[in-house]
Amino acid sequence: MSDHAHPTWRATSLGVYRFWRDLGYAVGAPLSGVVADMVGLGAATHLVAALTLLSGVIVAMVMEPSHRAVATISR
Fold it and tell me: What is the domain extent for residue 33?
């Protein structure tokens, strides 16, 4: 996340990122439990996998690649 944030708004963007990530932990576990109780553990696992895939696809479509140089290890 910090690779994609401009230095002037990096702290704010990391705060927003961590808010949504932590909210996912707080809401995701009880929601998975409810889904598992209603329709089974397999369905809860598939729901979590689908939501994770969806968020990855959205990030891949919206975020631009970082242009920072990547350090390489030479032997």
Answer: 10-62
In a domain, 69, yes or no: no
Whether residue 70 lies inside any domain: the answer is: no
Domains in the chain: how many in total? 1
Report yes or no on 72 lying in a domain: no
Full 3-state SS string of 5-72: CCCCCHHHHHHHHHHHHHHHHHHHHHHHHHHHHHHCHHHHHHHHHHHHHHHHHHHHHHCCCCCCCCCC
- The residue count for the chain: 75
Residue 71 lies in a domain: no
Virtual torsion, Cα 1, 61, 25, 29, nearest 10 deg: -160
Span 22-68, pLDDT tens digits = 998 999 899 999 999 999 999 999 999 999 999 889 988 887 766 65
